[in-house]
Design a protein that fits this description.
Blueprint: H1 3-7, H2 9-12, H3 20-28, E1 39-40, E2 45-47, H4 55-67, E3 76-78, E4 81-83, H5 89-96, E5 106-110, H6 116-121, E6 128-132, H7 136-149, E7 154-156, E8 170-176, H8 185-194, E9 196-207, E10 216-217, E11 232-233, H9 235-245, E12 247-257, H10 274-277, E13 278-279, E14 282-286, E15 294-302
Parallel strand pairs: 2-3, 5-6, 5-8, 6-7, 8-9
Antiparallel strand pairs: 1-2, 3-4, 9-15, 10-11, 12-15, 13-14
Helix pairs in contact: 3-4, 8-9
């Protein structure tokens, strides 16, 4: 597989008619060159203060950020501009934060979206951070934030299927909210294993269903109005997938029910969110009649 050809998509996509306006907005930010900005790695990932900018500069940043709607992951505070994303990703990050130490490690975030989690991970001082996501929109959201952060994070417009062909392997891989989008979950987990160094670890989260049996739900067409959801396992089935893929020390970190505190409509997101995806008369079910979204967080180590 020629990854260089695929990596050129990042530059080629700038010419796409639906992408070019985003790129042009990011280019305008070159007018604002700030250094030594205050960064807060808290729930609202924050860069700078409003008083660091002129009103003209603040208006330019606001216009650029609004051109990049919808913002699904966040929240961000950029010079006092609060980008209140659909997902309050700080809830997920704070849940998993006690379970890893990234200092001096080579780290990948598969399905990194706009990089919110990676920006938070900078506080850990990893040796290298690489995000994988093929979406042009989230690439430009990342570049919008990183224009001011000036981090060394590498953003690749690649997917998990390219991981094993990448030019180096990783010590720790995150894959948050991706596995249920893959038609071959065991094959996907094998790709993660092949992308890891010896004794490397993964931390994943995925939809789950309750039950002790080693089974999974296979939605017909849509799940919670999402079209590309293939398999939703019990924890027992997920453990089997991980073992078959070459992992050991499989640890369930937490299970959570998705609530409107974590996922909801905002002026920065789509016009529909979780409340529109659930049965209006029974919030324990999706609009299709399936169990409402529940997640399991799992950490595992590559078998030597």
């Amino acid at each position: 597989m020629n990854l260089e050809t695929l990596q050129n998509k990042k530059n080629e996509c700038r010419e796409w008619k639906n992408v070019q306006p985003w790129y042009e907005q990011i280019q305008k930010l070159s007018q604002i060159d700030k250094s030594n900005l205050d960064i807060d790695y808290g729930d609202w990932f924050t860069v700078g203060k409003k008083e660091d900018l002129t009103q003209e500069e603040f208006d330019l940043i606001t216009d650029a950020a609004k051109k990049l709607i919808p913002w699904r992951k966040g929240p961000f505070n950029i010079f006092g501009l609060e980008i209140d994303s659909e997902w309050q990703s700080n809830i997920k990050y704070n849940l998993i934060r006690p379970h890893f130490n990234l200092k001096d490690k080579i780290v990948a975030d598969i399905g990194c979206n706009n990089g919110y989690y990676m920006f938070r991970m900078l506080e850990d001082k990893p040796k290298r951070l690489v995000g994988f996501d093929p979406s042009p929109l989230t690439l430009h959201q990342f570049e919008f934030v990183n224009h001011f952060v000036k981090s060394d994070i590498v953003y690749e417009m690649l997917g998990v299927e390219h991981l094993e062909f990448y030019n180096h392997k990783f010590d720790f891989i995150f894959m948050l909210g991706v596995l249920y989008h893959r038609a071959d979950p065991v094959g996907t987990l094998k790709s993660l294993a092949r992308g890891l160094n010896s004794k490397g670890e993964i931390l994943i989260d995925t939809f789950m269903i309750d039950g002790d049996e080693e089974i999974c739900l296979t939605p017909n067409k849509r799940y919670s109005k999402i079209p590309n959801i293939y398999f939703i396992p019990t924890i027992s089935a997920l453990n089997n997938w991980c073992e078959r893929a070459g992992f050991e020390n499989i640890e369930v970190l937490a299970t959570t029910i998705t609530t409107s505190e974590e996922q909801r409509k905002t002026p920065w997101s789509f016009d529909q969110s979780l409340e529109d995806f659930l049965d209006e008369n029974d919030k324990t079910k999706t609009v299709e009649g399936y169990p409402a979204p529940k997640r399991v967080y799992v950490k595992a180590r590559k078998i030597l």
